[in-house]
Amino acid sequence: MKPYEHLAAFGTLDGELRLGGMPLSRLAARVGSTPFFAYDRDILDARVDRLRAALPRRIELSYAMKANPMPAMVQHLAARVDRIDVASALEMQTALDSTISADRVSFAGPGKAPAEIRQAVAAGIIVEIESTTELERVIKAGEELGLTPRIAIRVNPDFAVKGSGMRMGGGPQQFGIDAELVPDVLSEYASAGLDILGFHVFAGSQNLNAAIIAEAQRRTVDLVSNLAEHLATPVRYLNLGGGFGIPYTEKDQPLDLDAVAADLHALVDGPIAQRLPEAKPVIELGRYIVGECGVYVTRVLDRKVSRGKTYLVVDGGMHHQLAASGNFGQAIRRNYPVIVGTRADTPVEENTTVVGCLCTPLDLLGDDIELPHAVIDDLIVIFQQGAYGLTASPTAFLGHPAPAEVLV
User: What keywords tag this UniProt record (predicted)?
Assistant: First the structure.
C-alpha cells in the first residue's frame, strides 16, 4: 500500500492533505496545537455504506467501541449501526449516552467486575458470558435487582483462525467458555432465571484473507447450530464476530469484502435460515469501520543528520500511537503509510526516519521512508489511525500533554 492510495480517499487542496474539506494547515490552526487525531466523517460514512451494500440485509452491524471510544465518534455511529459492543463500564456509559437503545448494546470481555455486571443487568444490556464465574455474578445481580438478565454465551471455538493479527479463539483462551463445556453449562444453568439469547464466537482479529474469514464463519454457524440443540429456547442472537482487517503496510492487500459478503449471503440464506430461523446474525466490527477514516498529525520540531542518516523529530510519538511504532503486538515492525501533509503533492526527495519526542529508541514512527524534503514546522501525517490509536497507547509516559481528537 502506497501513501498516494490514501490521498485518493482524503484528497488534497492547495497542495495539502484535505481533512473534512479543508487543507491540513487550516485544520491544525483550528485545533490549536499538535499532535492531534482527525477522523473524516465522509470516509467513515462511506465505509458503513459500503458494508451495508455488501452484507446481507438480515445481518446486523455492531460497532466494537474498543477500536475508538471517542464520544463524538460513538454518537455519530450510533445512528449508522444496529448495535454497539462495549468492554468496560466507561464504554458502557458512552454507549448509553448515545442515541442507541440499551437492548442494542452488548458487554464483552474477560474479567468483568461485579459492579460492572450489575450496571449492565440494570440497564438491560446483553452480557456476553466469558466464564461460569460471570454467570454466577449475573445471576446474583438479577436476583438483587429483581430483573431477568439478558445474556449470550461467548464460546471459545474448537478451531483456530489462521492469518489473524491476534488469535482469540481455539486452544486455551481467557476468552469465552470452551465449546465442549457449553452443553453442560447450559444444562446446569437452565433454570437460573436467565434470558439466554444466544451465542457469540470471535476467533481472531485483523484478518485480510477473505477465504479464511469465510471458513471461520461457516464453522461458527455449524458450531452454534449444534450448541443450539442444548438451549431451551430458540437462538435469537448470533454474533459471528468480525475480524475484518485493514492494510497497514505496503505488503498488505486490502480485504476482498465482496468475497466475504458472498459467503455470508450463502450462510444467511442457507444454514442460518434453516437451522437458526429466529436468530439475528450480527457482524461485530471495530477496526474495519473506523480504522481508515483517521490520521495522526504531528509537527516537525527538529531536523538533524547523524552520521549520514536524516531524522525528523516530531512532537508526537508512541505515547499517542503505539501501534505505528511497532510495539503493539507486531512480530516484525513495518512502516505505516506516512506523508508530509503540508507538501502532499511534492515529489519525494530523500530517505528520512521519523522519530518521536520520547527518551527511548522505540519511539520510531517511520524508519527509512521516502518523503519530500521536510523542515521544522511541517506537518507529518500517519494514516490508518482511526482504530487502536490514542486509547491503546501509553499516554502517561513522560508526562507529555494529551493530543486532541476531532471528527471533521
Answer: Pyridoxal phosphate
Delineate the domains of the chain, giving CATH numbers in brackets: 3-39+292-407 (2.40.37.10), 108-285 (3.20.20.10)
Contacts of residue 58, Cβ cutoff 8 Å, sequence gap at least 6: 268, 280, 281
Tell the residue number behind the cell numbers 519526542, with chain if given.
357
Separation between Cα atoms, residue 136 and residue 206, nearest integer Å: 33
Neighbours of 219 (CB within 10 A): 16
CB atoms closer than 10 angstroms to residue 98: 18
| SS3 labels along 149-208 | CEEEEEEECCCCCCCCCEECCCCCCCCCEEHHHHHHHHHHCCCCCCEEEEEECCCEECEC
User: Is residue 347 within 8 Å of 267, Cβ to Cβ?
Assistant: no
Residue 35: cis peptide before it, omega within 30 degrees of 0: yes
* Tens of pLDDT, residues 194-231: 999 999 998 778 899 999 999 999 999 999 999 999 99
pTM across the whole model? 0.94
Strands 150-156, 379-382: pairing is unpaired
Continuous H helices in 79-131: 89-96, 114-123
pLDDT tens digit sequence for 74-112: 999 999 999 999 999 999 999 999 999 999 999 999 999
Q: Are 390 and 405 in contact (CB under 8 A)?
A: yes
Q: By C-alpha distance, which of 393, 382, 371 is closest to 323?
A: 393
Q: How far apart are CA 61 and CA 52, in angstroms?
A: 8
Q: Report the amino acid identity of residue 17.
A: L
Which cell numbers hold the place of 182? 457449553
Comparing CA positions, the residue from 101, 185, 176, 94 lying closest to residue 136 is 185
